[in-house]
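User: Please predict the structure of the protein below. I'd like the answer in structure-token form so I can feed it into my own downstream comparison script.

Assistant: Understood. Taking the following sequence of 131 residues as input:
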Amino acid sequence: MTDIIADSLTRIRNAAMRRLESTELLHSKTIESIVSILVQKGYLESYSVEDLGNNKKSIKVVLKYDDNERSVINELKRISKPGRRIYKGKDEIKRFKNGYGTLIVSTNKGVLPNDEAFKQGVGGEVLCSVW
């Protein structure tokens, strides 16, 4: 596997389609940052990092559903891929889906949501979008 971010997003998407309570993701600092932003923005219920031994970790993600048992995530999409990187300046990431969605951007100040990156005046690689 070469793209751990796409794999993690697909695992979340598949678990939401099957209406599972939780799912396991491979651990990396970037994935942990993305998941923490999704929890902060209200797309996921919670997450926890579990130690598997042999210096391996996993992230257990608890999914969030509305009153009608539908996932609160309508679309979770990988934007920048290993074969084609997508970079945006601070002015280009101001709003996404009229404020209903979130772009997750990898900047020189860490992995940030688009509104926070705009406030700090930084652009970067657009990792994924969620709404």
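That's the full token string. The longest helix spans residues 4-17.
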